[in-house]
Amino acid sequence: MPEPERRTVPVPGEPLPLGVELTPTGHPAVDAGLARLAALDGVPTDAHVAVYEDVHQRLADTLAALDRD
Q1: Residue 37 to residue 19: CA distance in whole angstroms
Q2: Helices H, strands E: what count in the chain?
Q3: What's the pTM value of the predicted model, to 2 decimals?
Q4: How far is Cα 52 from Cα 38, in angstroms, rounded to an integer?
Q5: Is the pLDDT confidence value at 13 over 80?
Q6: Torsion angle of alpha carbons 47, 20, 22, 42, nearest 10°?
Q7: Count of CB atoms within 10 A of residue 47's CB?
Q8: Could you tell me which residues come within 8 angstroms of residue 33 by beta carbon, excluding any fewer than 6 positions away?
Q9: Average of per-residue pLDDT across 30-43
Q10: Is 46 exposed, middle or buried (0-12, 13-18, 19+ CB in 10 A)?
Q11: Distance, CA of 60 to CA of 42 (rounded, Å)
């Protein structure tokens, strides 16, 4: 018999996971960036900025590399 789904009680002031599903693109560099963003689910927002900036730069570099090829 399957176990019943466990629901956690939200802790006031703690971030709640959004539960957004990751859809792979098939491009390793883009998928790596999406995975980094997905890892932020449930992490306090003050930790997001550095990851957003890093992913943005990596995606910009990936696009620029497409223009060079």
Answers
A1: 12
A2: 2, 0
A3: 0.68
A4: 11
A5: no
A6: 30
A7: 10
A8: 55, 58, 59, 62
A9: 90
A10: exposed
A11: 26
More confident residue, 65 or 20: 65
Q: Distance of alpha carbon 52 from its chain centroid, rounded?
A: 9
Reference 61, options 21, 23, 32; nearest CA is: 32
What Rg do the C-alpha atoms of the chain give, in angstroms? Answer: 16
Q: Are 34 and 26 in contact (CB under 8 A)?
A: no
How far, in Å, CA of 67 to CA of 45, rounded? Answer: 33
Q: What is the pLDDT of residue 24?
A: 93
Burial of 59 (0-12, 13-18, 19+ CB in 10 A): middle
Dist. CA 9–CA 19, nearest whole Å: 16
* CB-CB contact of 64 with 38 (8 Å): no
